[in-house]
Amino acid sequence: MTGSIVDKDIQKNRLLWRCRRGTRELELLLYRYIDEHYDSLSQEEIDLFKEFVEQSHDDLSSWLLNQEIPCDNNRFNSIIKAILNIR
């Protein structure tokens, strides 16, 4: 295995760890997003997802479980919409 593949696998595992939120439903949505999209994400998109999973539990629950899309200019809207479309 080359170094970049190993690095990408390590980064993916770290993201999966960050997706642990204490609510099974929320975790499943975040894990599915990683499973479905990780290989096609740019580094910029991965960094944005890292920021996204660091948001408060209440915000993530509101956006993903209650499907309350934040204002139009929210930088996380593309992630939120992609996650909700996986269902």
Summarize the structure in words.
The protein is an all-alpha fold. The protein has one domain: Flavinator of succinate dehydrogenase (DNA polymerase, domain 1). The protein contains five helices and no strands. Helix 2 (24-37) crosses helix 5 (77-86). The N and C termini lie far apart (33 Å). The mean pLDDT is 88.
Short description:
By secondary structure, the protein is mainly α.
List keywords for this structure.
5 helices, mainly alpha, DNA polymerase, domain 1, single chain
SSE blueprint:
Blueprint: H1 3-18, H2 24-37, H3 43-53, H4 57-64, H5 77-86
Helix pairs in contact: 2-5
Biggest sheet, in brief? none
The assigned CATH architecture is: Orthogonal Bundle
How large, in whole angstroms, is the Cα Rg?
A: 13 Å
Tell me roughly what share of residues is in helical segments.
55-70%
Low-confidence stretches: none
CATH level 4 superfamily: Flavinator of succinate dehydrogenase
Distance between the termini: 33 Å
| Number of separate structural domains | 1
Q: Count every beta strand, where a strand is a DSSP E run of 2 or more residues.
A: 0
Supply the number of helical segments: 5
Structural class: mainly alpha
- H-E order: HHHHH
| Structural shape | globular
CATH topology description: DNA polymerase, domain 1
CATH class: Mainly Alpha
Overall mean pLDDT:
88
What portion of the residues fall into strands of 2 or more residues? under 5%
